[in-house]
Design a protein that fits this description.
Number of strands: 0
Strand content: under 5%
Largest sheet: none
Structural class: mainly alpha
Helix content: over 70%
Shape: elongated
Distance between the termini: 36 Å
Radius of gyration: 12 Å
Number of helices: 3
Length: 67
């Protein structure tokens, strides 16, 4: 769980610096980690949703840049 949060935070920092492609990579990694849950298999659904939303926002920003 902690790893997923850390990955999300790195992605967030990159997003704030408008480095959307790199932020997307970190956000996708955060989703994968969050889906695995903690050592007991418990999933933080709120954290998972936050990371999924970050993935979508990065994709949206990248699409805007491509236009």
């Amino acid at each position: 769980e902690s790893l997923g949060k850390s990955l999300h935070q790195v992605g967030y920092c990159l997003f704030q610096m408008k480095q959307y492609a790199e932020a997307l990579n970190w956000a996708e990694r955060a989703v994968k980690e969050a889906e695995q849950g903690d050592i007991h298999g418990r999933v933080d659904h709120q954290g998972l949703q936050r990371s999924r939303e970050a993935v979508e926002e990065c994709r949206r920003r990248l699409a805007e840049q491509a236009d």
